[in-house]
Amino acid sequence: xxxxxxxxxxxxxxxxxxxxxxxxxxxxxxxxxxxxxxxxxxxxxxxxxxxxxxxxxxxxxxxxxxxxxxxxxxxxxxxxxxxxxxxxxxxxxxxxxxxxxx
Length: 102
Hints:
This protein is mostly helical.
């Protein structure tokens, strides 16, 4: 009785579009190849990003930056563009909100 109930709940969550945890999204999307939470790798750490933009409404700006790529803000190495096939719009918004809370 409990197993079918749990399966039904799991299916309901999946069909309702349950959002993945930000940590899982950055792993799946390859973000950790260049960024870490608390240390600079190729790009800035998530904590550095959060500190730089603390108290500012930059979600749309960061969304565009990830989609289009670019450089010059954090040093000479440009960030490559990331398509919706690499990270969906919903996942990207989730990650940006999470990064800004670090």
